[in-house]
Amino acid sequence: MKKSVFTFLFGILLLFGITSAHDCHLFPELSVKNLEKTLFESSVKGNPALATLTEEGLRRALINLKAHCCASQILGDNAQMLASCKKDAKYLTERTNYPQSSFLFDHVIDVMMRRLMVDGKYEELPLDKKAQEWREKTDRIADGADGVIPVAISKDYKKFWGLQPEFLIPEYNGVSAPEYKKAINDLESKKAIFAKYEDWNLNTRYYNLCQSAIYLMTHLPIDFGSEQMALAQKKCSSMTQQNIVNEITNLSRLISHKSELLLAQNMENYADAYLMDTRGGKFEEKSQRMLSNLFGVMRMVPKLISMCN
Asked: Is 140's pLDDT higher than 80?
């Protein structure tokens, strides 16, 4: 995958490092090799949030979480966990590009944020077509040798980054997991927001990412602490908002650079054309004088010949 000309850095959500809670308890009876016919699989099957997160994204998040749990030996005294880590060893080796967190939420956000940023870290994930389209547009303009008028770049701003209030999912506000799940279920039954994921622009996809992950957590057999999830919502929203700001800042810089380049190229072309016109005029004037002199000499030839005779 082509590397973007822009570099985006985001902080990993190590939200609960100060607590003793973790999601590693998922794995003594859960292999990332096969989630079918497990409590986990039945919990997420048909979940509308998977339109945002994708099954492949959730599986990658689970692999990264288990890799951390096994490497950190959080359940090192648990014989089942040790056996489970050994069973999935080949899936967990050389996994250094994931958050050092023992919470599934952190890994889901990491995986899906990378997908929106098109950074290519997880090749098994399906491309986010909207994000890919935006990256290809900006890469193509940035890589081009010529300047571009600002309107040629900014005309797509609304398409990708304009507000879409009809698709926004309410942020988690500290209610219980069943209450939040019911609220989002009711919203989905009325407006089918998740079902219209392909209509979300990039701004909406970033904005809804945190809520989608929290909604997914309400379906899973994990500890759901209202206070911790409220903190997760706050920090996650701050991170996604910063990524949106980074995208817009880079777009502004691209517009400025390409418009300045276009101005410089136009001035250079004008100067070249001016010099060509000026030099061409002088050449034509000299040519006319030379031809006039030549014709004068030619008229003198018969007279000079007769004088020689």
From this structure: no
Please tell me the pTM assigned to this model. 0.75
Distances (CA, A) of 61 to 97, 101, 116, 124, 251: 11, 11, 15, 12, 30
Backbone angles phi, psi at 192, to 5 degrees: 50, 50
Note the pLDDT tens digit of each residue in 180-221.
999 999 999 999 999 999 999 999 999 999 999 999 999 887
* pLDDT-derived band at 307, boundaries 50, 70, 90: very low
Residue 48 confidence (pLDDT) above 70: yes
Q: What is the dihedral of CA 252, 253, 254, 259, to 10 degrees?
A: 90
**Residue 74, CB-side half-sphere exposure with 13 Å CA sphere:** 21
- Please give the single-letter amino acid code of residue 237: S
Go through the chain and tell me how many residues it has.
Answer: 309
Q: Where are the beta strands (DSSP E) in 36-89?
A: none
User: How much is the pLDDT for 1?
Assistant: 35
Q: Reduced to 3 states, what is the DSSP secondary structure of residue 175?
A: coil
229 — alpha (psi -120 to 50), left (phi > 0) or beta? alpha
Q: What is the rounded CA–CA span in Å between residue 181 and residue 72? A: 32
Per-domain residue ranges for the chain? Answer: 24-266
Between the two ends of the chain, the Cα-to-Cα distance in Å is: 89
User: 144, 53 in Cβ contact below 8 A?
Assistant: no
Q: Which has the closest alpha carbon to 10: 80, 100, 87, 113?
A: 113
Tokens of 176: 């219980």
Can you tell me the distance from the alpha carbon of 300 to that of 293, in angstroms, rounded to the nearest whole number? 11
226-308 and 104-117 helices, crossing angle to 10°: 20
Amino acid at site 37: K
Q: Is residue 56 a contact partner of residue 112, using CB atoms and an 8 Å limit?
A: no
Residue 44: left (phi > 0), alpha (psi -120 to 50), or beta? Answer: alpha
Element (H, E) at 186: helix 177-191
